[in-house]
Amino acid sequence: MEKEITNKLKMKGVLLSIIMITVALNVFAESGYELWMRYNKIDDKVVEIEYKKALKNILISSTQPTLNAANAELNLAITGLLGMKPSNDNTLVDGTIIIGTPANSDIIRDLNIASDIAKTGEEGYVIKSTFINGKSCTVIAANHEIGALYGTFHFIRLLQTFQSISNLNILEFPKLKYRILNHWDNLNGTIERGYAGYTLWDWQRLPMYVDQRMIDYARANASVGINGTVLNNVNASGKSLSKEYLIKAAALANAFRPYGIKVYLTARFSAPIEIGYLKTADPLDSTVRKWWKDKADEIYSYIPDFGGFLVKANSEGQPGPQDYNRTHADGANMMAEALAPHGGIVMWRAFVYENNRHTDRAGSGYIEFIKLNGKFNKNVFVQPKNGAIDFQPREPFHPLFGQMPDTPLMPEFQITQEYLGYSTNLVYLAPLFKETLESDTYTKGKGTTVTNVIEDYQRTHGMSGIAAVPNIGTDINWTGHVFGQANWFAFGMLAWNPDYTSEKIAKDWIKMTFSHDETFIKVISNMMMQSRETAVDMRGALGLNHIMNYATHYGPGPWYKNLKWDAIEYHRADEFGLGVNRTATGSNVAGQYAPEVAKLFSNPETCPQKFLLYFNHVSWDYKMPSGRNLWEELVYHYYKSVEDVKQMEKIWDGIEKNIDAQRFNHVKQLLKAQEEEAIWWRDGSVLYFQTFSKRPIPAKYPMPEHNLNYYKQIPFPYDWKDAY
Whole-prediction pTM value? Predict the structure, then answer.
């Protein structure tokens, strides 16, 4: 009976875990709730002396909500870091921080920094040390209030990481205009591929009640420059566009607005039928077009700064324009026309494929969209995933990047670890993001990286963007795994500036989240940087991918078969060798890239080892750069993954004295689970591929404890589909 009642409450959207947040915060001082905005007292006397001289007073000549948020955040930070509350008045004294814009601050307007501020655009800022009337001051100035808020958070990061603030001269602006989180949250409170509790959006109590956690969510996003949130799942319900839910979404938009975050919604293509009671959703039908125009007008009446629509169409069973023999451009442009008068955009996902045997999914998105280049309206993004298959632990960059110069592309990454051990595994994802962003497309000659491509759309089309699917839920620490917070932080930092390095982001996050101890920072940052390679070794090194359990996407499943999908389509193991032939003699996915890239990938001798089996079917006896043959190399990576996780456990055990007991034990337990899962992947995968290679496991490695059938039968109890 208790289970039945609990399920009913969940289905009604009563998110009981949210109610417990306040109580839990009072009990667990280091629960992880504060994320990287952890303003604990500074324990460095030299830094403390400098800061106390420079942080005596905050001067903001406006009560505009965004500047109020900046004022509140800086007060909170200084009070926590220094144990003293700054004054907040209009008197200039030594150690005054002045925050604002030329429009609302006479002091900023009279300073000789107008030319610098002009360079920062709509969201950038200037942080400058200066003297005003003989008083030492720090100025955080911008063209608009949101820039001043972003500048305030940058300034706070300097304080948290113990940087000198005595001679600042910083000019920053985002490299990409739209920096968006695509939440896969459902109206019943569940989250598809979410591993940190239930949805933050308390639909049952909205719009009457907006939890403080919504403000803290907005603070966290603003602190790293994220400026958009898609509230609902790409596998959308038409109800998300109903009046009832628009009013609820408006309450969230109101809460997020001071922090510069616009609300977006996933639009179900068949909504005109499901909630509009039309007989068709044909994008060329005049009544359908009018329905979308009227719906857009209605949305903007509730949410004046509504961002626009995200759309998943004709993919994995979702309705779309192809149901009516129309193109993706026809569908996107219909919605774009409805949004255009209000300044909204459409993000039309390019994750479209036929999930059939003998069809190479890696090439499907390119085939669908390359012919539509230049046929989308000017307020439409086409949104490919970072790779062509599906957020794999490692994939080459999507071939559409650089190939659609007349259509803005917005890459989508995945922060939630759908294929990377959920919130059980420690996997730092900045190296994954950077690997894609730094990939050379060669589409305008050598050096045309994916970053260059997506940034160039700002110049050529007036719009640019990047998105990611988060793992944010009602767990007290937000992301299920404390180290999962680093991936949220890293995405925001790279969305603001893709040129930041993974190492710097990791070290700053460690300082803000854990400790300033230099040994701790070095050891933990090295562990984080290695963790992605460990995850790849565990789940399919050398270019293997999509060989996980089909239903859960969790454990190993290279043996998986059903009516529509066989894992063997993704690894092609046989007695000769391993890997998928995507060269000109195979599916020719390599030919979708620029000629220089295609040539590189199509030759096993030149193909980067990390993508070898993605593009080439290679003999088991093929000699690898290490001197091992392919079989030995494959076994080496699987066994290395287990040893690397064990090494992570040793590293973590060694820093116990540097961290609070609660978070230490949290990570310690999860690392032990990660070790067990690495063994599961290693033993099951090696035994399976051995049935094709017919070669022994080298004697230096311990033999699997069980036979292959044992590993095939290991169940994993959680499947997101069971949540419905």
Answer: 0.95
What CATH number does the domain containing 439 carry? 3.20.20.80
Q: Are residues 333 and 413 in the same domain?
A: yes
Cβ atoms of residues 512 and 160 within 8 Å: yes
Domain match, 185 and 162 both = no
Q: Which parts of 35-94 fold into alpha helices (H)?
A: 45-54, 65-82
Q: Please tell me what DSSP assigns to residue 56.
A: S
Q: Is residue 712 part of a domain?
A: yes
pLDDT attached to residue 22: 34
Pairing of strands 465-469, 178-182: parallel
pLDDT tens readout for residues 14-38? 333 332 333 333 333 599 999 999 9
What pLDDT does residue 718 have?
A: 58
Residue 182 sits in the same domain as residue 122? no
Q: Are 301 and 342 contacting, i.e. CB atoms less than 8 angstroms apart?
A: no
pLDDT, residue 349, reads 98
Catalytic pick among 34, 73, 368, 418: 418
**DSSP structure class, residue 555:** S
pLDDT digits (tens, 9 = 90+) for 602-659: 999 999 999 999 999 999 999 999 999 999 999 999 999 999 999 999 999 999 999 9
Is pLDDT of 720 > 60?
Answer: no
274, 305, 390, 566: the active-site residue: 390
- Structural domain contains residue 604: no
Give whole-number Cα distances, 39 to 30, 130, 511, 692, in Å: 12, 26, 11, 56
| CA 63 vs CA 97, 225, 283: distances in Å | 16, 22, 45
Amino acid at 119: K
Residue 469 β-bridge partners? 414
Question: How is the beta sheet containing 57-59 ordered, strand by strand?
Answer: 57-59, 96-100, 135-141, 125-132, 169-172
Least confident of 3-12, 469-478, 643-652: 3-12
Structural domain containing residue 689: 535-580+617-723
Give the pLDDT confidence of 259-277 residue by residue, as tens digits: 999 999 999 999 999 999 9
Q: What's the total number of domains in the chain? A: 3
Please check whether residues 507 and 436 belong to one and the same domain. Answer: yes
- In-domain check, residue 93: yes
Catalytic one among 106, 316, 406, 722?
316
Gap between the Cα atoms of 471 and 184, Å rounded: 9
pLDDT computed for residue 12 by the predictor: 35
- Secondary structure (3-state) at 415: coil
Annotated catalytic, 418? yes
Both 540 and 507 in one domain: the answer is no
Judge whether 649 counts as a catalytic residue.
Answer: no
Q: Are residues 334 and 466 in the same domain?
A: yes
Find the CATH number of the domain harbouring 687.
3.90.1330.10
Q: Is 656 a catalytic residue?
A: no
Q: Encoding tokens for residue 468?
A: 């990611």
Q: For residue 161, tell me if it sits in a domain.
A: yes
Domain with residue 133: its CATH number is 3.30.379.10
Mean pLDDT of the chain: 94
Which of 412, 383, 387, 417 lies closest to 486, judged by CA?
Answer: 417
